[in-house]
Amino acid sequence: MKILPTSRGGRRSARVAVACAAVALVAACSSGGSSSGSSSSPGAAGSSASSGASGNATSGSITWWASPITTTSPDPRTVLIGAFEQAYPNIKVNLQSAPTDTDTNRASLITTISGGASSPDVFMGDVIWPAQFGKAGLAVPLSQYLPASYWATFAPGLVQGATYNGQVYGSPLFEDQGFLYYRKDLLAKEHLAVPTTWPELEADAVKIKNAGLAKYGYVWQGASYEGLTCNFMEYLGSAGGSVLNSGMTASTLSSPAAVQAATFMRSLITSGASPGAVTTFQEGQAMSAFATGQAAFLRNWDYGYSYSQTKSSPSSVVGDVGVSPLPSFPGQPSPGTSNIGGWNLYINPHSKNIAADLTFIKWMAGTDAQTILATQFSEIPTTTAVRDSAAVKAKNPVLAIVGQTRLIPRPAGTAAYAKVSQAIYTNINSMLSGGASPSGALSAAASQINSAVSSSGL
Fold first, then answer.
1. Each residue's pLDDT tens digit, 376-412
2. The pTM is what?
3. What is the topology classification, in CATH, of domain 11-176+343-403?
4. CA dihedral sign of residues 70, 7, 384, 170
C-alpha cells in the first residue's frame, strides 16, 4: 500500500488521504547484483568527477534519512539498500526512518544540519527543497562533483527543478506527475475521442454531464493549498507561461498566457464542466468522486490508476478507466505540461564520507535501482533509459505513457518558494470561488510574489 510522506505539494498528501485503499502494483524483479564498477550507474563510482570529495568512494558507512515509500512488504528502502550493498559490499548503509509529514521532516533536517551534525549523510527530500536548502547551505551542490553527462540521463525538467543559482542540489530518485484519467465507457457511449486540448475536455465534460451519464464532468484539485499551485502550473505551462522570470527575481504573471490559464480554470466551473465544490477538493475528494463513478474525467497523480482499479478502494469503475497525458491549449505544443512531484536525494554538507554518499546517490540513479522502483513498486523512474524500457512500460498504463508527457517544475528555484506558492493558491482559489476576476487574482498574486522574492529566509 502506498502511503508516502505528506507534503504541501505532489501526491504525498493524496497518498495519505487514500492510502488505506490504494494498492501498490508489485511484481517480482531480480536486480542481479552488479560489481562495484557497474555500468548501471550513470557515472562510475570512483570517477574523477568525485575525486575531490572527502572520504572513500568504495568503503565506509553512511546514514540514509528517508521517509517510508510504501506500507507494503518488503520495504522499498531496505530492498534498495540490500541491492546497493551487494554491489558495494564495503559500504554499509544505515536507514534512519524520517517522519511521514514532509513539513515535520523538513524542520527536523533544518535543525539537525544547521546545528552542524554530520548525520544523516544522505537524505531523501521533496523536489521543492533545492533552493531553500541550497541557499541556507544545508545541502551539497552535487553538480560540483557530478558531470554534465550524469545529469543528462534524467528526464527533461527534473534537473531544472533540482537547480538553484546554477547548481544542482538534488539527484532525482523517483517522480510523480499529473495525468488525465477518463471513463472509457462514457466516452464510448457519447462517441468521443480522448480529449487532447483543454477546450475539448471542457466540452466533453459538459456533454457527458448534461447527458446524465455522470454527476460531474471533470474533477481536480481546486482547494486553497499546494495542490492548486500544481494544477495551476499545468494550465500555465500548457499556455506557454511562467510564474517567475529566468532570474527568479520578479513575477511574470501579467502575461497573456497566465490570463488564458486563469480564465480557463474559472470557465471550467462557470460552464458546468467542473462542480463549484471543486474549490474545496484536494486529491482525496477528487479521487473519491471519480472512483465512485460520479465523474467522467479526473486530474490526479500517478497513484490514480491503481486506486481506480481496486474494488476495495472503494472503486466502482474497475476496468473502465483510461489514462493519458494532460491536454494542452490549441496552438501550443502537445501534450500539455504535467507538474513535477516526487523526491530527490541530497547530501548533508557536514557528512564525513561524501565520496561514499556520491557512490550511493549515483547507484540510486542507475538502471538497477530505477528498475526496482518501477517494476517492484510502480514508482515513476527518473532516468530516461529506464522510463523507456519495455519491461517498465508493461507494468501498468501509467508507466506506459510517462515517456510521452512534458514535465514542468514549480517555481521552486527561489528560497521564497513557500510564499510564492501561497500567493498562487490563495489568489487562484479566490478567483475560482468568484471572489476575484482572473486578471485581478493574477495581479494580487504577482504583487505578493514580488514581495516574497525580494526577501529571503527559509
1. 999 999 999 999 999 999 999 999 999 999 999 999 9
2. 0.89
3. D-Maltodextrin-Binding Protein; domain 2 (3.40.190)
4. negative
